[in-house]
Design a protein that fits this description.
The protein has about 325 residues and is an alpha/beta fold. The chain folds into 2 domains: about 200 residues, Rossmann fold; about 90 residues, UDP-galactose 4-epimerase, domain 1. About 45% of the residues lie in helices and about 15% in strands. It contains 12 helices and 14 strands. The strands form 4 sheets. It has a 6-stranded parallel β-sheet, with helices on both faces. Strands 6-8-12 form a 3-stranded parallel β-sheet. Strands 9-11-13 form a 3-stranded mixed β-sheet. The longest helix is centred in the N-terminal third of the chain and has 20 residues. The structure holds nicotinamide-adenine-dinucleotide (NAD). InterPro entries: Epimerase_deHydtase, NAD(P)-bd_dom_sf, NAD(P)_epim/dehydratase. GO terms for molecular function: L-threonine 3-dehydrogenase activity. This is NAD-dependent epimerase/dehydratase family protein. It comes from Psychroflexus maritimus.
Length: about 325
């Protein structure tokens, strides 16, 4: 039987597009999508799907054994904005799912694991510009604490048990196919939908808040590229910095204005401003470039074009 891939949290913002891409590459029968809930119609029709609560070790093991799973992408988590509302729930979900996957890898039930970290591992004491791979990390959100702890455990499981776990510190990801999952960078997605619907957006971050961002196609490309890289080239087993684009709400609004001249924006920062203020403005991803030839494609202008065209086409 062919070894298969399992995506956990496949109905989310990243999982939906990752499933689509991996199914196109590996064949739909070889990529099993799973989540605690059903996803988009397209995803549900596109190949095998299991309802699975990844905090349940036995249920996860059953799916892995049943489908002869070799490789797991663990996308289930509670994101930064929502996690601040439910700190203990977020900690429990983010850590239990990671330990379940790491322990299945340690016991030889799977041979490779992808687990995403985030720029949220950094904190207010981290150098903000061009944040290096190794630097001060004092995250101040429960989400960031869970990601930083997760990184330490990934490295530990690799060193101590030889687990082949790979990870990327995603910046804010911008896409239109699925609604964002409650993160602090969600404004950069909502703004496009509101601009096209009512030519107006009220931003929950202030106009000068620069954050590292990336168009989803680049993030999916990086994820699959890292998983395909020969294990000898992967020098970092905590999580790789990944750069992309850095811009403020004001700069994004200006780029949208060029395409939608009547578009207007107001700024009404909420609790997410404090989260954004604790994160870097831009990221140095030299290690990813050197170790596995990473290079992003989308800049601010091409990303804005892709978002506007994508949302318009999806509405037709
Ligand atoms: N989207 C971003 O901008 C971004 C940035 C940095 C890191 N990340 C990380 O990438 C991963 C995926 O993010 P996303 O944006 O797709 O999140 P999302 O919230 O859109 O999707 C997460 C999915 O996990 C599912 N899920 C929740 N609890 C589950 C459980 N117990 N068992 C199985 N599935 C469960 C949810 O139903 C949801 O479909 C997360 O680890 C997140 O922290 C995302």
């Amino acid at each position: 039987m062919v070894a298969k891939t399992l995506i956990i949290g496949a109905c989310g913002q990243i999982g939906t597009e990752l499933t689509e891409k991996l199914r196109a590459e590996k064949g739909k029968e070889n990529v099993i999508a799973s989540d605690i809930r059903e996803g988009s119609k397209l995803l549900m029709k596109s190949g095998p799907f299991e309802i699975l609560d990844a905090t349940n070790y036995d249920a996860l093991e059953d799916v892995i054994v049943h489908y002869n799973i070799d490789e797991v992408y663990l996308m289930a988590a509670m994101l930064s904005g929502t996690a601040e509302k439910f700190p203990m729930k977020a900690w429990d979900l983010n850590m239990t799912t990671l330990f379940n996957a790491l322990n299945l890898a340690k016991d030889g039930k799977i041979s490779k694991l992808f687990w995403p970290s985030s720029i949220a591992v950094f904190g207010p004491t981290t150098p903000k510009e061009n944040t290096p791979q190794q630097t001060i990390m004092e995250p101040s959100t429960v989400y960031g604490i869970s990601k930083q702890t997760g990184e330490r455990w990934c490295e530990y499981y690799h060193k101590r048990y030889g687990v082949d776990v790979r990870s990327i510190r995603y910046p804010g990801l911008i896409s239109y196919k699925t609604a964002p999952g409650g993160g602090t960078t969600d404004y950069a997605i909502e703004i496009f939908h509101d601009a096209l619907k009512e030519s107006y957006y009220q931003s929950f971050l202030s106009q000068e808040t620069a954050l590292p961002m990336m168009y989803m196609d680049d993030a999916i490309k990086a994820t699959i590229q890292l998983m395909k890289t020969d294990h000898t080239k992967i020098k970092i087993r905590s999580s790789y910095n990944l750069g992309g684009i850095s811009f403020t709400p004001k700069e994004l609004a200006k780029a949208i204005n060029k395409r939608i001249p009547q578009f207007e924006i107001d700024y009404e920062p909420d609790f997410r401003q404090a989260i954004a203020d604790s994160w870097p403005s831009s990221i140095d991803d030299t290690n990813a470039q050197e170790d596995w030839d990473w290079k992003h494609e989308f800049d601010l202008e091409t990303m804005v074009d892709a978002m506007i065209e994508g949302i318009k086409a999806a509405k037709k």
